[in-house]
């Protein structure tokens, strides 16, 4: 390689700033922004968020502030990144880039929101920088997975800071050296252990990742340096965090900005729970009208082999779910809750549901079998055997919201309306939607942020 990975990422971003991103890329960035608002509007009073919000407030209010979404609190921009990252993560209702097992936007968006509030850049500049930062992050994650994930890292924690630093540097118009240093600092400070799943710490990791990227951006702006080979060096990110090979680098980086952008590979969630549960929940809700009073004896899902491994590990670690954070990572519970209650909302994550004997009795009837043809968890099959000896079968190759079965702009807007209805005044919901879809025409993001608050 004639240039390092960080230098090549800088070249891609600087070219994108000069030429602008394609219109469809800008629209996808707005979709991903709206999706994060959808993912977090119901999380404002979650106990984990309360902890981090109160911690941020205790730091005091500086001259330049960032906004905590849905509360409107003004805090230090770096601390706003932490709380907003936790908001995006805690309900697990955000995006998923399934090829890399990661929530790509959740570590990037909080930092660039804070940077744009402080910097006052235009909405168009914000959208462009967000798209470029996400694409750089997804390139890095493509190189480093799957073994970065298999080693036990939270993918967002491992890669999100790189995207956050890149997006903020692009927003601010850093020169090549400062942008490369920002990216390099973020590469050298990647973190996050997957054992955190089921605890408050997972939400904190996402927030801390956003803060790490924001801090890398700020420090590079002040002149802090980073190694040019932070990614591919002898003790760099590639070697220390994964078992991937150097040979992966060129094909991935050579594809940047050419052909289909990776941000179009994102999946959007229709229910507030983990990605591997979505196809099973969709199948259950489609199956219920066919039941007609029959009692299930066995509920069998055919899933990707990796899903069987994940579910087994979590069942051994958690047993029965003891909190909403454990419940949303229990596929068997989620399928059972959807079956017993005929829906899947935040109420199905609450204690009356995850301790309900009827739901837990259905959970005991759920089995998973590996289907080798399923490389990922976009789809699943369902076979239900009833006590009268009859059976019903369904299959979904791509759940709604995946690239193979995409959610339209209108569907995404309507999902936000439904999700926000119990938390925001109706007119403000419409005003916020209008602000997001027209953000590329706004003088800055402050008007949008002022609307992103709950209550009357």
Topology:
Elements: H1 5-19, H2 23-40, H3 47-58, E1 66-67, E2 74-75, H4 77-90, H5 109-119, H6 123-144, H7 147-150, H8 155-172, H9 176-188, H10 200-221, H11 237-241, H12 249-254, H13 278-291, E3 296-303, H14 305-318, H15 324-327, H16 331-341, H17 351-354, H18 357-363, E4 366-370, E5 380-386, E6 391-396, H19 409-420, H20 426-437, H21 446-451
Parallel strand pairs: 3-4
Antiparallel strand pairs: 1-2, 3-5, 5-6
Helix pairs in contact: 1-6, 1-9, 2-4, 2-6, 2-19, 3-4, 4-5, 4-10, 5-8, 5-10, 6-8, 8-9, 8-10, 9-10, 13-16, 16-18, 19-20
Word description of this protein:
The protein has 456 residues and is an alpha+beta fold. The termini are far apart. It has helices at 5-19, 23-40, 47-58, 77-90, 109-119, 123-144, 147-150, 155-172, 176-188, 200-221, 237-241, 249-254, 278-291, 305-318, 324-327, 331-341, 351-354, 357-363, 409-420, 426-437, 446-451; strands at residues 66-67, 74-75, 296-303, 366-370, 380-386, 391-396. The strands form 2 sheets. A 4-stranded mixed beta sheet has the order 4-3-5-6. It has a two-stranded antiparallel sheet with strand order 1-2. Helices cover 54% and strands 7% of the residues. The model has no long low-confidence stretch (mean pLDDT 96). The protein has 2 domains: 5-270 and 417-451, 2-methylcitrate dehydratase PrpD, CATH 1.10.4100; 275-396, 60s Ribosomal Protein L30, Chain: A.
């Amino acid at each position: 390689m004639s240039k390092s990975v960080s230098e090549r990422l800088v070249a891609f971003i600087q070219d994108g700033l000069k030429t602008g991103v394609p219109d469809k890329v800008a629209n996808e960035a707005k979709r991903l922004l709206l999706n994060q608002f959808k993912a977090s509007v119901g999380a404002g009073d979650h106990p984990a968020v309360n902890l981090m919000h109160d911690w941020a407030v205790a730091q005091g209010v500086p001259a330049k502030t960032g906004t905590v979404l849905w509360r409107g609190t003004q805090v230090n921009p770096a601390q706003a990144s932490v709380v907003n990252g936790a908001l995006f993560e805690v309900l697990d209702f955000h995006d998923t880039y399934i090829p890399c097992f990661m929530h790509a936007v959740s570590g990037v968006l909080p930092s660039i929101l804070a940077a744009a509030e402080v910097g006052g850049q235009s909405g168009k500049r914000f959208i462009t920088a967000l798209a470029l930062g996400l694409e750089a992050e997804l390139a890095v994650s493509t190189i480093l997975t799957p073994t970065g994930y298999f080693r036990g890292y939270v993918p967002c924690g491992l890669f999100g800071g790189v995207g956050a630093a890149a997006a903020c540097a692009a927003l601010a118009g850093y020169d090549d050296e400062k942008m490369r240093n920002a990216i390099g600092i973020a590469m050298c400070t990647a973190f996050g252990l997957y054992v955190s799943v089921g605890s408050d710490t997972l939400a904190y990791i996402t927030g801390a990742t956003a803060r790490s990227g924001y801090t890398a951006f700020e420090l590079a702006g002040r002149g802090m340096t980073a190694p040019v080979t932070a990614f591919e060096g002898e003790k760099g990110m590639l070697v220390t965090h994964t078992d991937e090979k150097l040979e992966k680098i060129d094909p991935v980086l050579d594809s940047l900005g050419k052909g289909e952008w990776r941000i179009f590979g994102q999946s959007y969630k229709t229910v507030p729970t983990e990605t591997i549960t979505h196809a099973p929940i969709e199948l259950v809700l489609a199956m219920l009208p066919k039941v007609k009073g029959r009692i299930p004896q066995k509920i069998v899902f055919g899933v990707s082999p990796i899903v069987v491994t994940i579910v087994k590990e979590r069942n051994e670690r958690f047993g029965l779910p003891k909190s909403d954070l454990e419940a949303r990572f229990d596929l068997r519970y989620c399928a059972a809750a959807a079956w017993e209650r005929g829906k899947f909302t935040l109420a199905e994550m609450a204690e009356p549901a995850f301790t309900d004997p009827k739901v837990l009795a259905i959970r005991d009837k759920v089995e998973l079998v590996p289907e080798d043809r399923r490389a990922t968890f976009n789809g699943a099959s369902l076979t239900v055997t009833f006590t009268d000896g009859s059976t019903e079968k369904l299959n979904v190759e791509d759940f709604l919201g995946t690239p193979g079965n995409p959610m339209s702009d209108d569907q995404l807007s309507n999902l936000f309306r439904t999700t926000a209805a119990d938390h925001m005044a109706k007119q403000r919901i419409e005003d916020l939607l209008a602000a997001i879809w027209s953000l590329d025409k706004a003088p800055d993001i402050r008007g949008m942020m002022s609307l992103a608050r709950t209550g009357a």
